[in-house]
């Protein structure tokens, strides 16, 4: 089974660090550091999959940390995200391009940062998973790290043919993709569109991709994008009714 991303989060301000943890807690396994020197040692030791670092820190700021990591062969390819004020980005970081995945501007809203970070880490997770599954067979992970919408979008863009199996407690759903389009889905006694709509609400549980499984059945009535849009509309409608 695929393990979640290891993410190093760096900030010398305890309050900001806690907000970052709150924003990133569903994106992977978090390792924290409270200054640049601590982060450098941890990055060398654990080799995280991604680093979120504040720019303005005493002794060793975020840019110095970035440059020291880029100077070492074993850490030079670790993707890096800066958290900084707009002024710091404009005056000190705008020219730093190679290896920087994203700039997050302070002050930030936790919800907005969490959503942007989730999309970013989902992309890294998907790339790693595709590399692992390049030779065929099964790979898997947690829905909290890569949910159904992430997978539907990714598999459609990649025009993948495979089966996606989702499990949430005793419930299981199998969705078949044919060149990126959901062709068949079954969840208990539900099939097709309704099976897809049911599992769009799942945020916890496991996923598994099997690149060897295919199906000749065709029970869906919409393309992948249509299923995603209609599923989101139904979710919004249910949330309004509940409120």
Determine and state the CATH class of the largest domain: Alpha Beta
Put simply, the count of helices is 8
The level of helicity is 40-55%
Average of pLDDT: 87
Computed over alpha carbons, the radius of gyration is: 20 Å
Please provide a brief summary of the model.
By secondary structure, this protein is α/β, with parallel strands linked by helices. It is built from 8 helices and 11 strands.
Could you characterize what this model shows?
By secondary structure, this protein is an alpha/beta fold. The chain has two domains: 116 residues, Rossmann fold (3-Layer(aba) Sandwich); 107 residues, no CATH class. It is built from eight helices and eleven strands. It has a six-stranded antiparallel sheet. A five-stranded parallel sheet has the order 2-1-3-4-5, with helices on both faces. The chain is elongated and about 60 Å long.
Using brief descriptors, characterize the structure shown:
243 residues, alpha/beta, Rossmann fold, 2 domains, six-stranded antiparallel sheet, five-stranded parallel sheet, 8 helices, 40% helix, elongated
Task: Draw up the topology in text.
Elements: E1 6-10, H1 14-24, E2 29-33, H2 36-46, E3 50-54, H3 62-70, E4 80-85, H4 86-93, E5 100-106, H5 110-132, E6 138-142, H6 148-157, E7 162-168, E8 171-178, E9 181-187, E10 190-191, H7 193-199, E11 206-210, H8 224-242
Parallel strand pairs: 1-2, 1-3, 3-4, 4-5
Antiparallel strand pairs: 6-11, 7-8, 7-11, 8-9, 9-10
Helix pairs in contact: 1-5, 2-3
